[in-house]
Design brief:
Elements lengths: L1 H19 L7 H4 L24 H24 L1 H12 L1 H4 L1 H10 L2 E6 L5 H15 L8 E5 L2 H14 L8 E5 L2 E3 L6 E5 H10 L8 E4 L7 H13 L7 E6 L5 H6 L5 E4 L6 E4 L1 H7 L27 H17 L10 H5 L3 H19 L4 E5 L3 H12 L10 E6 L5 H8 L7 E6 L2 H4 L6 E6 L2 E8 L4 E8 L2 H9 L7 E5 L3 H6 L14 H9 L5 H5 L8 H13 L11 H8 L4 H12 L3 H12 L11 H10 L6 H17 L3 H8 L3 H21 L17 H11 L3 E6 L4 E5 L3 E5 L15 E9 L3 E9 L1 H8 L7 H5 L2 H8 L2 H20 L1
Parallel strand pairs: 1-7, 1-8, 2-5, 2-6, 3-5, 6-7, 9-16, 10-12, 10-13, 11-12, 13-16, 19-21
Antiparallel strand pairs: 3-4, 14-15, 17-18, 17-20, 18-19, 20-21
Helix pairs in contact: 1-32, 1-35, 3-4, 7-8, 21-24, 24-25, 25-26, 25-31, 26-28, 26-30, 28-29, 31-32, 34-35
Bound molecules: cytidine-5'-diphosphate and magnesium ion.
Family: Belongs to the DExH box helicase family.
GO molecular function: ATP binding; hydrolase activity; RNA binding; RNA helicase activity
Organism: Herrania umbratica
Length: 833
């Protein structure tokens, strides 16, 4: 097993040699300068202006003159007809009334915290106030304001909005920058970017040179990146006394932030919303003639989905909810609802009932209610797209002359995004199916009705089992109130909560911050690449520090996969991984895929693991769907089945038959398209690492029984590994940590009675009652030994013999050479044994 270390060392050396061909390794991402055009693909956006050719006195004059120009431009716009109207709108927002107060507090304090209800004008107005006051004081040409958003879609939509409020095009004084996309010009003084982008800038510019204001928006969401950024900024403030930090929150619990920043002043913007009437499930059943379907008759596809209590609700609440849900449903004359046990009630999936109920309520609103848009909060993209399909088949809701049906989620394209804000024609009702993104970061003005399913997808992480899961869980009270508030923007509204009042009462007050409920691996890598010292010491300074065990697990994982060395320093592999903003395991696959010239299938796999499962399993056609998936399976691998399915789709797309192909094969066309675009994104990220030259990247892509791809998958997914033990009729699976485990029913390996390999590597395990593995690939001993790292298993001896021959088999000459030494070691080892 000592050999494995050597393999690692070899790969490390190889990467290191590669990296030395660059002038400055860690600055690689940022060293290329961009062209002067205002559309910039990736980095380069943060380069300093280029005043080099002038003396500072001349420069000052130029900037001063530019400042005056900016001021004149703005004045001219505000005097124009459209400009006046826009200004009037802006002045009607609650934030505008606080303008002077906000500006004076910012002037006098380094850190300011501003809270105010969603839609009161924080995001669009406050950065503008600062910009305007700088321009008025003719310092406008030198100020540089960065406003971070947790999601790319809000960064883009907000920057567009602000530019249009200023009568400009994007890329003039207002710009945006998200990963792989951006719009910024020489005059851009206000930049909206994702939090991740600012963190990447800190990588090369620790003092944020030239930046005058940093605004961190939506801090109430307590995203991991935001919490992380706050620690870094807190350290930065003493080094940059003139830098201003403004934190913005949509909820009132801002004292926490204030005390974190040594009692920074709080400003609250009093809001205005019209009253919204809340209807809970029992009221809905009372006022409509809708009847819930008994549990055992629900044939919605969603039935299989696991239903999980929100982590933060204590155990006793669970049973409390269980009994009260039951009571509520009984009270609602729901006679047939007879859960066998408490357990089966906790498996009761409100989403299922939600699906039919949502359809019913939407048609009820369309037929009986006054005009006004409807906003439907659902758990995720997959739910939204299924719901959309269901609604499109409905006689009223699917009729475009009566309903404008739109969707809103984090991964939608910016063109799609603009549709949400558009006004429908008269007599047409706008219905927007959305994730919790519309809860606080996107405001749709004309909403009068809100449907709230009560859940949101949340990553949670169980440090004890070291198992991450992304499951719908109950939202918090604050979220439910936010959702309700969306209905009262323009007139009194109605909110339909699709769960009983008693469930709401059991919601926790706030959601747990992300840093406390997700794996910390990427975060730890970032801490290391920003040279912020000891990981656990750094994280102990967070607003709320994660459990020590979670931190240790993450560090341990990074050591096992070779991203950190024994002393917690970044290895060369670790450096490369920090350049790839994705889970380390996916980054590892891409890196090895590039090195071993086997890129296309690996790109497909990595992209496939980043989108919703492309293999659909409608409940009523489960057998057909499983059979369709099996056609793609020849390799005892879900990952390779995906590659084959995707390649088939690409072929079909050439004849414009992609959609039919997906329909026939139970594939999601949306996921296929998403994979295609992600592949491009990943490829360009990978090019930036300099690991390959962009040409001969695939000559190893397909080989006999796919050993090379298996090796790459194994390299990424290790230590997600389980052993296959055959008995007479079938096989059983075991992992080191969990003991016996099961395969997810739609895995191709679940259909096999024998797997001619001793190991499975898997992407994800989910704990329900037993532990289930999702997406697995069978690998041989040699692959596991060389690419997986060491694993203690009793009967390795018998398998060692086969190793020698294999090596030559899947190595290209150039790489095989590097493994010659290892090969000799193997031979020696086998002889010794
Ligand atoms: O950040 P906050 O939730 O406080 O509000 P905002 O995003 O600054 O939006 C203020 C107002 O601008 C909203 O209430 C909308 O009326 C309007 N707005 C818009 O019409 N179109 C956008 N893309 C963004 C905002
Ligand atoms: Mg906002």
């Amino acid at each position: 097993f000592g050999l494995l270390k050597r393999v690692d060392a070899h790969l490390g050396e190889y990467l290191f040699q590669k990296s030395r061909t660059k002038e400055s390794f860690s600055d690689n991402c940022f060293s290329r300068s961009s062209s002067n055009s205002s559309i910039v693909t990736d980095e380069g956006l943060f380069e300093q202006p280029e005043p080099l050719a002038f003396s500072s006195a001349v420069m000052e004059k130029i900037l001063w003159r530019r400042g005056l120009q900016l001021r004149d431009q703005q004045q001219a716009w505000q005097e124009s007809l459209e400009g006046t109207r826009m200004l009037e709108f802006r002045q009607s927002l609650p934030a505008y009334k606080e303008k002077d107060a906000i500006l004076s507090v910012i002037l006098q304090n380094q850190v300011v915290i501003i809270s105010g209800e969603t839609g009161c004008g924080k995001t669009t107005q406050i950065p503008q106030f600062i910009l305007e006051s700088e321009i008025d004081s003719v310092r406008g040409a030198v100020c540089s304001i960065i406003c971070t958003q947790p999601r790319r879609i809000s960064a883009i939509s907000v920057s567009e909005r602000v530019a249009s409020e200023r009568g400009e095009k994007l890329g003039e004084s207002v710009g945006y920058k998200v990963r792989l996309e951006g719009m910024k010009g020489r005059d851009t003084r206000l930049l909206f970017c994702t939090t991740g982008i600012l963190l990447r800038r800190l990588l090369v510019d620790r003092n944020l040179k030239g930046v005058t204001h940093v605004i961190v928006d939506e801090i109430h969401e307590r995203g991991m990146n935001e919490d992380f950024l706050l620690i870094v900024l807190k350290d930065l403030l003493p080094r940059r006394p003139e830098l201003r930090l403004i934190l913005m929150s949509a909820t009132l619990d801002a004292e926490l932030f204030s005390s974190y920043f040594g009692g920074a002043p709080l400003i609250h913007i009093p809001g205005f919303t019209y009253p919204v009437q809340a209807h809970f499930l029992e009221n809905i059943l009372e006022m409509t003639d809708y009847r819930l379907t008994p549990y055992n008759q629900i044939d919605d596809y969603g039935q299989e989905r696991m239903w999980k209590m929100s982590k933060q609700a204590p155990r006793k609440r669970k049973s409390q909810i269980a009994s009260t849900v039951e009571d509520a449903l009984r009270a609602a004359d729901f006679k047939d609802f007879r859960p066998q046990t408490r357990e089966s009630l906790s498996c009761w999936n409100p989403d299922c009932i939600g699906f039919n109920l949502i359809e019913y309520l939407l048609s009820y609103i369309c037929e009986n209610e006054r005009p006004g848009a409807v906003l439907v909060f659902m758990t995720g993209w997959d739910d939204i797209s299924s719901m959309k399909d269901k609604l499109l088949a409905h006689p009223i809701l699917g009729d475009p002359s009566r309903v404008l049906l739109l969707t809103c989620h984090g991964s939608m394209a910016s063109s799609e995004q603009k549709l949400i804000f558009q006004e429908p024609e008269e007599e047409v009702r706008k219905i927007v199916l959305t994730t919790n993104i519309a809860e606080t970061s996107i405001t749709i003005n004309d909403v009068v009705f809100v449907l709230d399913c009560g859940k949101a997808k949340e990553t949670s992480y169980d440090a004890l089992n070291n198992t991450p899961c992304l499951l719908p869980s109950w939202i918090s009270k604050v979220s439910a109130q936010q959702r309700r508030g969306r209905a009262g923007r323009v007139q009194p509204g109605e909110c339909y909560h699709l769960y009983p009042r008693c469930v709401y009462d059991a919601f926790s007050e706030y959601q747990l911050p992300e840093i406390l409920r997700t794996p910390l691996q990427s975060l730890c890598l970032q801490i290391k690449s920003l040279k912020l010292g000891s990981i656990s010491e750094f994280l102990s300074r967070a607003l709320q520090s994660p459990e020590l065990l979670a931190v240790q697990n993450a560090i341990e994982y990074l050591k096992i996969i070779g991203a950190l060395d024994e002393n917690e320093n970044l290895t060369v592999l670790g450096h490369y991984l920090t350049m790839l903003p994705m889970e380390p395991k996916l980054g590892k696959m891409l890196i090895l895929g590039a090195i071993l010239n086997c890129l296309d299938p690996v790109l497909t796999i990595v992209a496939g693991l980043s989108v919703r499962d492309p293999f659909l399993t409608p409940l009523d056609k489960k057998d057909l769907a499983d059979a369709a998936k099996l056609q793609f399976s020849r390799d005892y691998s879900d990952h390779l089945a995906l590659v084959r399915a995707y390649e088939g789709w690409k072929e079909a797309e050439k004849d414009l038959a992609g959609y039919d192909y997906c329909w026939k094969n139970f594939l999601s066309a949306q996921s296929m398209k998403a994979i295609e675009s992600l592949q491009k994104e990943f490829l360009s990220l990978l090019k930036d690492t300099g690991l390959f030259d962009g040409n001969a990247t695939n000559y190893n892509a397909w080989s006999y029984d796919q050993q090379l791809i298996r090796a790459i998958i194994c390299y990424g997914l290790y230590p997600g590994i389980c052993s296959v033990v055959h008995n007479e009729k079938s096989f059983s699976l075991k992992t080191m940590e969990d003991g016996p485990v099961l395969l997810y029913s739609n895995s191709v390996n679940a259909r096999e009675s024998r797997i001619p390999y001793p190991w499975l590597v898997f992407n994800e395990k989910i704990k329900v009652n037993s532990v289930f593995l999702r997406d697995s690939t069978a690998v041989s001993d040699s692959v596991l030994l060389l690419f997986g790292g060491s694993i203690s298993r009793g009967d390795v001896d018998g398998h060692l013999k086969m190793l020698g021959g294999y090596l030559e088999f899947f190595m290209q000459p150039a790489i095989a050479e590097k493994y010659q030494t290892i090969r000799r070691e193997f031979d020696k080892l086998i002889q010794n044994k």
